[in-house]
Structure formats: C-alpha cells, structure tokens
Amino acid sequence: MPKSKVHIKINFTLLIPLAIFGYFFYPNVSTIIIGCTCYAVATRWFNPDADIINQSKILSFKGILTLPLRICYAPFFKHRGVSHTLFGTVTRMIAVIIFFYIVLFLYFMSWKFITSGFFSNLDFMQVSVQTTETSKYFLESFASFVTTHKAWSISALIGVFIADLLHILSDRIL
Ligand SMILES: [Zn+2]
Hints:
By secondary structure, the chain is mainly α.
C-alpha cells in the first residue's frame, strides 16, 4: 500500500512520457498542457485517498484546498472502497459541486440574515430557490465553456482519470 509521497513520485515520473504520448495522438501544445495540469492537480489534491483526507492536517495549503473533499467526501466513503475505482473520480467531482452549492446557500442565507436582521424573517424556501437558480446558471455557463472548448475539456478529463487510474493500479500492485 504505497504512501501518498510514493503515489506522487510515480505519477510525476510518468507525466513527461504521458505528455509525449498524448502529443503523439493530438499534437496541440495548449491541449496537452491543460491535460498535464489537471493530471498534476488530481495527483496532488484530488486523488482516491481523498477518502482519508481528514487524517491530514487542515491548517495548510493542501488542507484548505481539499476542504470540499473533507466536508462532502471523506465522511461518506470508506477507505479504498468506491473511491478507488474510476467511478470514484466522478463521485469526487459531484462532492465538489455539492460543496459549492452549500457555500452558495450559506452565502445567500447570511446575506438575507444581514439585510432582514432576524432569523424569523428568513425564508429557507426562497433561499433554496435562489441557490438552485444561481447554481444552474454556473453549471450552464460551465457546460457552454466545455462545449466550446471540447478538446481542452476532454484532455482535462483524461488527465484526471489517468492520474486516478495510476493511483488505483499502484495501490493494487505495490
Ligand atoms: Zn489509495
């Protein structure tokens, strides 16, 4: 069972060969750079061991960056369960979306609280609708970005999936 440093070493050693391999298939520098960046970010902060992220200290750069996974992921997934499959990658993406929904909800709620002054005036239904509408707007903007930059988006997704795949494989082999 490799430690996180070993995972990072393995993935970063393979980064350049994978980038060259990717360029061979799709010779576009910006697309490959985006894929590599997402691969690196996924390796460092978004990997399958997010299921035990709460065991590492929160007051650090990594701690703050992994806050969505600490709140919306780690408490719900057991170590090396679903998290260590390629479906785990999707569950982490959903966890991040849920986290931002919660943040947005709290933002609107505190805004209502400040402007109305009393909790008794708080309309939770209204705040939920407002949050859902705003989230929908963000998701739609994101979706239109994805469809206009298809190659970049696919490359980003492949980067994240390969990073996770290598993590899962090295967990099984080493
Ligand atoms: Zn692992």
